[in-house]
Amino acid sequence: MRPVITLLTDFGYDSYFVPSMKGVILSLNPEAMIVDITHAIPQFNVRKAAFTLWASYKYFPRGTIHVVVVDPGVGTSRRALVIRSRNYYFVGPDNGVLMMAAGDDGVVEVRSIESGDFMRPVVTSTFHGRDIFAPVAAYLSLGLDPSLLGPRVTDPVVLPGIGGSVSRGVASSVIIYIDHFGNAYTGIRANDLEVLGLDYGDELRINIPRRNVDLRVRFLRSYGYAGEGEALALINSEGFLELSINRGSFASRYDVKEGDEVTLSVIK
């Protein structure tokens, strides 16, 4: 099987940044299969990049090398990392963007990328995606032992965990992710529903204080069980309690943003 290298960045689709990285990879390993996860991460949004990687990494073939460049600390003292997990490699900055996915798969070792032998001859202070991460990924795809890249790291940066407070009838969390359709993911998971006491058909009171949102919605299995334009709650494909509008955008209608606090109360 051809080695797979994925790219996930906040570079957008209208600049030379992504093709430059691909050129570096293919110059070192013309057999590499490069897959774009996305380059539309909002600029500098490390948490959204981390969630996007977590939601997608596991569907790639074993041995895939995931490269993430959402790196507001580029050129500073922040470390460059390669992480070997049970089934994958992750390459990128030490700002927490890799650890949600790598930790989910099971971290085997973390290395600081320090050897210049596996970087471009000239490493600029503003484009480590091209000058460090892309060549390292290419060398890994050729079978490089990560131990040659640099010393072990025992304290990689880890972002605050996803979750919330759940008790009988009441849960609180934040909006952890808003997708392309404007669906708002809370940190409440499917396995919290028994504690919460929430069943399909129940009503939920949704309160988002910072947005002056206070409404009632039904908890349903999918969007089509609600009327067109009706707000609802459901468990989405990633196992999170999601706030949605059938054929509409919950985020746009209620001006909801990632990070907004939300309280959910079950109405029986």
TrEMBL record:
Residues 5-148 form the S-adenosyl-l-methionine hydroxide adenosyltransferase N-terminal domain. Keywords: S-adenosyl-L-methionine. It holds the Pfam family SAM_HAT_C. Gene3D superfamilies: Bacterial fluorinating enzyme like (2.40.30.90), S-adenosyl-l-methionine hydroxide adenosyltransferase, N-terminal (3.40.50.10790). It comes from the Archaea. Residues 175-263 form the S-adenosyl-l-methionine hydroxide adenosyltransferase C-terminal domain. Belongs to the SAM hydrolase / SAM-dependent halogenase family. This is Chlorinase. It comes from Vulcanisaeta souniana JCM 11219. The lineage of its organism: Archaea, Thermoproteota, Thermoprotei, Thermoproteales, Thermoproteaceae.
